[in-house]
Structures are given as structure tokens and as C-alpha cells.
Design goal:
2 strands, two-stranded antiparallel sheet, 3 helices, 11% strand, 50% helix, mainly alpha, 128 residues
Length: 128
């Protein structure tokens, strides 16, 4: 490994007992390429599952058991995609500074807190 370019990566699989697996390195090694390939397969399968879900929802002959099976597979796919997003997001470089010229356009962390007040409440999704 090469000193200053090392990072920690959440891998797209779990270890014993469902614990997350991490890789420390520069992102160019064999295990990084395996993880990239697995993420690519997971994202492709998720896209295919979305297409299948649309077809099933248009079919009025679909049974409740089939929809439950679809929902279970979609939950698995969402879990995979969420893990990929967490892994990739954690590896993004931090902005150099906050302010009008920063990537997020926010002037301070206080404004970021103000944005949280404008999130859709759980009731907007039929929850709570």
C-alpha cells in the first residue's frame, strides 16, 4: 500500500453474523476490482427487478404471494443499493470549505440544519 492514498471501503458483502466488511487500500487492488464487479451485478439486478416489478403491478392476475415474494426481493435489492451508496458516499472527498462557493452552496452548517426542517414528514409516506 502506498501511504497517503489509502482509504477505507465498505464492501458489498457482510461478514460473519451480518457484520460489515471493510477494505483498507488505494482502491486499485484485486479485492477492490472484485467489489466493483459485485456492485455492478447488484445494481444491474436491481434495475432488472424494477422492470419486473412494473410488469407485475400492471398484471391484474398477480397473486398476493407473488407480490410478497417481489417485495422481499425488492427489500434485498434496496439493502444492496443502500450499502453501495453508503460505500461510495463515504469515499467522496470532503469539500474544502463551506460558503457560497462550496459544492453544496451552503454558507454554514446552521443552514444545513435549517434544510432538515423542510424534509417530507413520515405522514407524507402514509407512515406515523
Amino acid at each position: 500500500m502506498t501511504g497517503g492514498t489509502e482509504s477505507v471501503r465498505l464492501l458489498p458483502w457482510s461478514g460473519e453474523g451480518g457484520k460489515p466488511c471493510y477494505l483498507v487500500g488505494d482502491g486499485t487492488g484485486y479485492l477492490s476490482r472484485v467489489a466493483d464487479a459485485i456492485e455492478s451485478v447488484q445494481l444491474g439486478m436491481s434495475a432488472a427487478l424494477l422492470d419486473h416489478a412494473a410488469d407485475m403491478l400492471d398484471d391484474h392476475k398477480v397473486t398476493a404471494a407473488q407480490l410478497r415474494f417481489l417485495a422481499a426481493r425488492m427489500a434485498e435489492a434496496l439493502r444492496d443499493v443502500h450499502r453501495i451508496a453508503e460505500s461510495r458516499g463515504a469515499r467522496l472527498p470532503l469539500p474544502a470549505h463551506d460558503g457560497p462557493g462550496s459544492p453544496d452552496g451552503l454558507e454554514s452548517e446552521d443552514e444545513d440544519e435549517d434544510l432538515r426542517d423542510h424534509r417530507c414528514p413520515p405522514s407524507g409516506f402514509g407512515l406515523g
